[in-house]
Structures are given as C-alpha cells and as structure tokens.
Amino acid sequence: MFNWLYAKRHAGRFLIRVEDTDRERSTDEAVKAIFDGLSWLELFADEEPVFQYSRADRHREVVDQLLETGHAYRDFTTAEETGRLRDAAKAERRAFESPWRDRAPTVDDLALPHVVRFRRPQSTTVTVADEVQGAVSWSTNDLDDLVLLRSDGAPTYNLAVVVDDHDMGVTHVIRGDDHLNNAARQSLIYDALGWIRPTFAHIPLIHGPDGAKLSKRHGAQAVHEYAEMGYLPEAMRNYLARLGWAHGDDELFSDAQAVEWFDLAGIGKAPARLDFDKLAHVNSHWLRLAADERLAKLTLDVHLQRGRVIAEDDEARLQRAMPFVKDRAKTVLDLADQTEFVLKSRPLALDDKARVLLSGETLDRLGRLRDRLTLFQSWDVFALEAELKSFAESEEVGFGKIGPPVRTALTAGSTSPDIARTLSALGRDESLGRLDDALQQTK
C-alpha cells in the first residue's frame, strides 16, 4: 500500500515481484492468493510482475562476479560441521565464520558439494540511512558471511533481491521492519558490486488489538478474508493508509487525497494496532458513498453464498432497498442481514406470535390501511411518511399501535428499516401484496 502511494505521489512506477526462491512455500495457491488480494485492493503494477525464481541464472551470474572480485568464496563445510561451528560461535558470543573464508579450494575440493558465501568486510561499520528508522548501524563483526548460493545452486533471498532490485531499477524499498537486519547484509552486497543502494524505509509491523504481533488468533490476516468479511476495497485502502501513517487528524480520505498527501515522514515508528471497530467505522463511511447498483451486486453475492435461491428480479429489489439500509450498515454482510426482508417470497409465513398480533381491532386497522394505500399512487418515502402519519391521526392512535403489525405483515419478523422505508424498499405492488396475504392468513 505504501509503495503504491509513494510511486503515485512521485509519478514513479509501482512494481510487483514474487519472491519465490523458497519453492516449498511458493505454491500456485499461495501466489494466486497474493494476486487475488492485490487485485481486490486495486493495487495494480505498472509493469508485468517479475517472478524471482525465473531469474536464477542471472543471480548465479552475479555470484560468479563476486567470486572473481574476491567478495565471495566457496564453503565446503558440511551441514553437520557448520552446525557445530555455529553453536560454538554462539557460546562464545561471536559471529559464525567458516574455515573456508581464507582457504583456497583444490581441484578435488571443487568436485564436492558446497555453498557460496559472501565475504563480508571485517572490523568496519555498515550504516543504513533509513527513511523511517533513521540511521541504523551494525558492526560487520557481528554479521556472519551469508550464503549466496545453496549447495544445489539455488540462489538465496538476500542475493536475489539485491540483483532484482538493481535490474528492475528500484529506487525505494518500503517494507516491514523485520527486514531491517537484511538491509545491512544487502547494503554490503550492493557496495561489493559497486551498485547504488536503493532508499530503504522500514515500517513497523501491524500488531493485534492486544499489542502482540498480528496472528491468526486476532482474526483475518489474508486480504481475501477481509473481502469475505464484507469490507470494501476503498475502505481497506483508507484504513491501511491511516493505520501506519498520518496526515494531521484526517481519518477519512480518498485515494486521490492519500496520493497527494503521502510522505515517508508521516509513517510512525511504533507498531500500529489493528482495530476492527475503527475499520468498521471507515467501512461504513464508504458504504454510504458507494453506488446502490454496486452494493446490490455485492449483497446478492452474499445471499448466494448463504445458500439463498435468487429470483430474476432480486438484484433490482436489492438495489431499490439500498438507500434505506446502507446508512445503518458497517459491512456488506450487514447489508445482507438487513435485506433479508426484501427477498422473502410471498406469501410470508406468519408464526403464532404474528397471528396473535394481527387480530381483532389491529387486523381491522391493517385492512383500513391497506385500502388507503391502494388508493395512494406516490410511493416516495417522504410521501409515505406523511400518509402514515395522516392515517394514524385519522385512527386517533399513536404510531406505536400501527408500526409493529404493519412491519410484521411486511417482513414476518425480519429486520427492516422504518415502515415508510420498508414500504418504499419493497415497492408498491409487493407491499400491497404482502398486506393482502397477511389479511387473508389471519381472517
């Protein structure tokens, strides 16, 4: 999100790279989830995405260059030996160092399995001028010689990202602060190759409401889960931008405003906490602004997922109801809950409680209202409000005597807005038909 905003703010290019050097984790399903999430958020790359694994030959070419210049060496230490040496180094509170760092391999050695390591400079300091964290320094004596190529010839992450960022022309890398230590190692590789380092900006990770690192126990993590929970992509973009960055006290803003305002200086150093109440507040704002036609389609999808059989005119009915329900909804799931009454098929099933309510004088009054509404042509919500008020006055009762039985006849107990809006949402023919059905069932 921040990379996208920064690129748009500075008329740059937003690039996507799938870092799939770990073949076990980089399944087709995992890659699809990434692109589905980005597509839902409408964060589209300005160029074709790059798949890191496909560039392995280029990565190995750079390793050969590092070997030729003395910035890398071949390490023939076995995995078991490496483990013992690493444990010993840890016990002595020093960085692990391979015995092959300053040892030239023989022809026979070269036939053996081995890794290629980066030969870091010793007894010096590497400093990353981070746009969020400030200048951060490490002693190179505290860093080990990282593996560039595994024994099977596969490039490792820290090598691959340096080569790919350089070749893709990346100028700014905005990522989680769990990569800050990697920035030190990557900077040394940039320096060894004589390449210009990109500008780094390491942002705090998102924490759960309890302050702990976000995990499954806090709820949804994957982007698609938020879509399934009924959030709109524009609301998610608004919320995510505000979660780790601030522009004064502005909480609700459009993409255009975010692009105009975004700056790395506005990113906080403390981890932001995911707050589902605030997310719901932001989402409710964007629901109110969303087109009714779009919300009707999204709501129809939820009804389908819940197993409802959809009739031909249900989408039109949902669209007609949207203006009357979206102001009270926080998610699209709420919209589905609040439009159950619209999709019910006639005749509505009335339970015993409803039949008791629709009896005696109440039933007679409902009949008189039905007759009056039959003569009423305007089905505008404001006209209906006036007509219902006039009817209550003619009956010489408060509306509390009229609303509950009318709502029962129209919805059979489902959640719905006020009576005038319920009538308007249902439409004239459907409303009168439901009133007729109720009168017939309770005679």
UniProtKB/TrEMBL annotation:
<protein>
    <recommendedName>
        <fullName>Glutamate--tRNA ligase</fullName>
        <ecNumber>6.1.1.17</ecNumber>
    </recommendedName>
</protein>
<feature type="domain" description="Glutamyl/glutaminyl-tRNA synthetase class Ib catalytic">
    <location>
        <begin position="1"/>
        <end position="279"/>
    </location>
</feature>
<dbReference type="GO" id="GO:0005829">
    <property type="term" value="C:cytosol"/>
</dbReference>
<dbReference type="InterPro" id="IPR049940">
    <property type="entry name" value="GluQ/Sye"/>
</dbReference>
<feature type="domain" description="Aminoacyl-tRNA synthetase class I anticodon-binding">
    <location>
        <begin position="304"/>
        <end position="439"/>
    </location>
</feature>
<keyword id="KW-0963">Cytoplasm</keyword>
<dbReference type="InterPro" id="IPR020058">
    <property type="entry name" value="Glu/Gln-tRNA-synth_Ib_cat-dom"/>
</dbReference>
<dbReference type="InterPro" id="IPR045462">
    <property type="entry name" value="aa-tRNA-synth_I_cd-bd"/>
</dbReference>
<dbReference type="GO" id="GO:0004818">
    <property type="term" value="F:glutamate-tRNA ligase activity"/>
</dbReference>
<dbReference type="InterPro" id="IPR008925">
    <property type="entry name" value="aa_tRNA-synth_I_cd-bd_sf"/>
</dbReference>
<comment type="similarity">
    <text>Belongs to the class-I aminoacyl-tRNA synthetase family. Glutamate--tRNA ligase type 1 subfamily.</text>
</comment>
<keyword id="KW-0436">Ligase</keyword>
<dbReference type="GO" id="GO:0000049">
    <property type="term" value="F:tRNA binding"/>
</dbReference>
<dbReference type="InterPro" id="IPR000924">
    <property type="entry name" value="Glu/Gln-tRNA-synth"/>
</dbReference>
<keyword id="KW-0547">Nucleotide-binding</keyword>
<feature type="short sequence motif" description="'KMSKS' region">
    <location>
        <begin position="213"/>
        <end position="217"/>
    </location>
</feature>
<dbReference type="InterPro" id="IPR020751">
    <property type="entry name" value="aa-tRNA-synth_I_codon-bd_sub2"/>
</dbReference>
<keyword id="KW-0067">ATP-binding</keyword>
<dbReference type="InterPro" id="IPR014729">
    <property type="entry name" value="Rossmann-like_a/b/a_fold"/>
</dbReference>
<dbReference type="Pfam" id="PF19269">
    <property type="entry name" value="Anticodon_2"/>
</dbReference>
<comment type="subunit">
    <text>Monomer.</text>
</comment>
<dbReference type="GO" id="GO:0005524">
    <property type="term" value="F:ATP binding"/>
</dbReference>
<dbReference type="GO" id="GO:0006424">
    <property type="term" value="P:glutamyl-tRNA aminoacylation"/>
</dbReference>
<comment type="function">
    <text>Catalyzes the attachment of glutamate to tRNA(Glu) in a two-step reaction: glutamate is first activated by ATP to form Glu-AMP and then transferred to the acceptor end of tRNA(Glu).</text>
</comment>
<feature type="binding site">
    <location>
        <position position="216"/>
    </location>
    <ligand>
        <name>ATP</name>
    </ligand>
</feature>
<keyword id="KW-0648">Protein biosynthesis</keyword>
<dbReference type="Pfam" id="PF00749">
    <property type="entry name" value="tRNA-synt_1c"/>
</dbReference>
<dbReference type="GO" id="GO:0008270">
    <property type="term" value="F:zinc ion binding"/>
</dbReference>
<dbReference type="InterPro" id="IPR004527">
    <property type="entry name" value="Glu-tRNA-ligase_bac/mito"/>
</dbReference>
<keyword id="KW-0030">Aminoacyl-tRNA synthetase</keyword>
<dbReference type="InterPro" id="IPR033910">
    <property type="entry name" value="GluRS_core"/>
</dbReference>
